[in-house]
């Protein structure tokens, strides 16, 4: 038993709580830095690029090339000063996102989720929060969007192990937002036509603070 625990830690598996959810709040600074320092920051793909508007391919190979992708995603996320980043936001057709995001209590959560699926919540857990939302792929634009203030995601970690992640408040919004990305949806797709038009206007009128891929 003890040897198995040691092997899991060596494999980079996050610990889990009594209910089986990953504990992604420990050693966040060290884990994020370890990924980021191995990665190369890439420019962010913006709305209109086809890779953002289709479902990504499932991750099935968790080898060295994939580990480098995750490192690049953490590096790109830091450059863009984001709290979550999906692979297609750097032009890669792979169902994985990374996050380094606080919840509403200021607790930091850091991790990797592959092949995520949002858990459908029972009615009693569906309290909506209509805070502003933004997206690195729609730079400089923000709009209020109602989402549940609690979210659960199932999937796999960066080694392919099954995981469950849950979050509240701002972190719950992040989990929903990034999972949406991997199925071809941007947050502006959930807005009314008028709100979407306004978000695109905001984007057109301002300069992004990080490198982006132009849609030629």
TrEMBL record:
<keyword id="KW-0479">Metal-binding</keyword>
<feature type="binding site">
    <location>
        <position position="181"/>
    </location>
    <ligand>
        <name>Fe cation</name>
    </ligand>
</feature>
<keyword id="KW-0378">Hydrolase</keyword>
<feature type="binding site">
    <location>
        <position position="135"/>
    </location>
    <ligand>
        <name>Fe cation</name>
    </ligand>
</feature>
<feature type="binding site">
    <location>
        <position position="177"/>
    </location>
    <ligand>
        <name>Fe cation</name>
    </ligand>
</feature>
<comment type="function">
    <text>Removes the formyl group from the N-terminal Met of newly synthesized proteins. Requires at least a dipeptide for an efficient rate of reaction. N-terminal L-methionine is a prerequisite for activity but the enzyme has broad specificity at other positions.</text>
</comment>
<keyword id="KW-0408">Iron</keyword>
<keyword id="KW-0648">Protein biosynthesis</keyword>
<dbReference type="InterPro" id="IPR036821">
    <property type="entry name" value="Peptide_deformylase_sf"/>
</dbReference>
<comment type="similarity">
    <text>Belongs to the polypeptide deformylase family.</text>
</comment>
<protein>
    <recommendedName>
        <fullName>Peptide deformylase</fullName>
        <ecNumber>3.5.1.88</ecNumber>
    </recommendedName>
</protein>
<dbReference type="GO" id="GO:0042586">
    <property type="term" value="F:peptide deformylase activity"/>
</dbReference>
<dbReference type="GO" id="GO:0006412">
    <property type="term" value="P:translation"/>
</dbReference>
<dbReference type="GO" id="GO:0046872">
    <property type="term" value="F:metal ion binding"/>
</dbReference>
<dbReference type="Pfam" id="PF01327">
    <property type="entry name" value="Pep_deformylase"/>
</dbReference>
<dbReference type="InterPro" id="IPR023635">
    <property type="entry name" value="Peptide_deformylase"/>
</dbReference>
<feature type="active site">
    <location>
        <position position="178"/>
    </location>
</feature>
């Amino acid at each position: 038993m003890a040897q198995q625990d040691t092997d899991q830690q060596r494999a980079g598996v996050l610990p889990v709580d009594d209910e089986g959810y990953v504990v992604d709040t420990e050693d966040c600074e060290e884990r994020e830095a370890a990924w980021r320092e191995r990665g190369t920051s890439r420019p962010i793909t913006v709305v209109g690029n086809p890779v953002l508007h289709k479902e990504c391919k499932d991750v099935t190979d968790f080898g060295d090339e994939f580990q480098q992708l995750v490192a690049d995603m953490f590096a790109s996320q830091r450059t863009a000063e984001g709290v979550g980043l999906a692979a297609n936001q750097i032009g890669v057709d792979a169902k994985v996102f990374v996050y380094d995001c606080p919840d509403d209590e200021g607790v930091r959560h850091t991790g990797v989720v592959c092949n995520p699926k949002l858990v459908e919540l029972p009615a009693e857990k569906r309290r909506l929060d209509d805070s502003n939302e933004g997206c690195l792929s729609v730079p400089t634009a923000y709009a209020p969007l109602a989402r549940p203030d609690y979210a659960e995601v199932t999937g796999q970690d960066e080694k392919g192990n099954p995981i469950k992640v849950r979050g509240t408040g701002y972190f719950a919004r992040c989990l929903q937002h990034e999972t949406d990305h991997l199925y071809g949806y941007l947050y502006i797709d959930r807005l009314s036509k008028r709100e979407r038009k306004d978000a695109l206007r905001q984007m057109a009128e301002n300069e992004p603070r990080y490198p982006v891929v132009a849609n030629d």
